Amino acid sequence: MAWKAVIARVSSVRRGAAGLARPGVQRCGPPVPRPGRLGGPLAVLVLFLAALAAGAADTCDICGQALPARFLESGGRSFCSQACYRRTLPVCATCGQVVSGRHLVQGGRHYCSDACFERTLPTCALCGKALRESFTVEGRTYCRAHAEGPRCDACSRPVEGGETLADGRVVCAGCRPSLVFDRGEAAELYARARRMLAVALGEALPPAPPLHLVGLDALPEHRGLEAAVSVRELGRYQRETVTTTTRNLFGRVLREETEVSRRILMLYGLPADSFLSTAVHELTHDLLAERYPRFDERAPEWAKEGLCQYTAAVVCRRLGCGDVVAEIENAPDAVYGDGYRWWARRFGPAGWDGIRRWLEQGDGAALPDRAPAPPPR
């Protein structure tokens, strides 16, 4: 927001003298009888009205007293004294003093000085500087330097100083104590996410994949279906299948052994509610790969990512994490956002039973490459 002030000038004041002719005022004197003129009571009435008009023209427009020989005049109004004239002047909206001469006007309010005007301006949440140009970030006001400076990775607000993590992220002092860095705390939240997901879906989950806390270097940013939308992953499910084949001297296969390795990567330094939501998302990937491999192998990305967002939203609603749910529901990208909204429209906010039947009977390969748009209202 940019504040603009205009310079106002109080109307000029002209000194006048009582008894001198002024526009619209004519002096009246005693009548001079002339032949053919009105006389009697009617003449007396005319003289009385003329005297009233002359008296009204020579009174102060503020107090109503008769004007002295020397008086003030401004904007077509007459004043008997400086005190009466000052009663017509604007007052400073900050200090209440009478404003005269050149001064600032903003939004119909008058200010006697720059100092008084600046006391009404918003201030930067970090440096406290009064701002004629301000920027709002996450509901707070900042100067340009801080608005365009580094942001806290947790709350997304501008940060001054803060702590720089090993992977280059910056976190503010206010968020730092609530972020998940400790492996023990991460393990507890991971276990809680598994319990909540099992309850929400009404089925037992596969054995838990090992959990690894990692930095941004292990979770590079990637583009979704729309190049304009950037997606930063907070976690990742990794699954690798290794098949070992044993043959005899003649090339005959004696045996084949298949080993599947699974693990979940989670970004360290997340708020607890984001950690839980991300853990549920990645555990759902594991559930799809273990229990519904036909869907997992053939469905488009938006269907798989959207379904994992769906289960994360179900659990977060149960936990009362409204901000995380809103973030999932309003995600703008075509994979996570549109994918979630397709599942939510089709099965409702708590429709895992219907989704389970669809996963068992449906064909993920039959889904389109992009999430279908919602029907017109």
Structure description:
By secondary structure, the chain is an alpha+beta fold. It folds into three domains: 6-22 and 46-117, no CATH class; 135-179, no CATH class; 181-366, no CATH class. 33% of the residues lie in helices and 20% in strands. It has eleven helices and 17 strands. It has helices spanning 40-57, 82-86, 114-118, 144-147, 183-201, 272-291, 293-298, 301-319, 322-329, 336-347, 352-361; strands at 6-9, 13-17, 70-74, 77-79, 102-106, 109-111, 135-137, 140-142, 163-164, 170-171, 179-180, 211-214, 222-223, 230-231, 235-247, 253-267, 270-271. The strands form seven sheets. A three-stranded antiparallel β-sheet has the order 1-5-6. It has a three-stranded antiparallel β-sheet with strand order 2-3-4. A three-stranded mixed β-sheet has the order 12-16-15. A hairpin with a 5-residue loop joins strand 15 (235-247) and strand 16. Helix 5 (183-201) crosses helix 6 and helix 5 (183-201) crosses helix 8. The longest helix is centred in the C-terminal third of the chain and has 20 residues, at 272-291. Mean pLDDT is 82; it is low at 1-39 and 43-56.
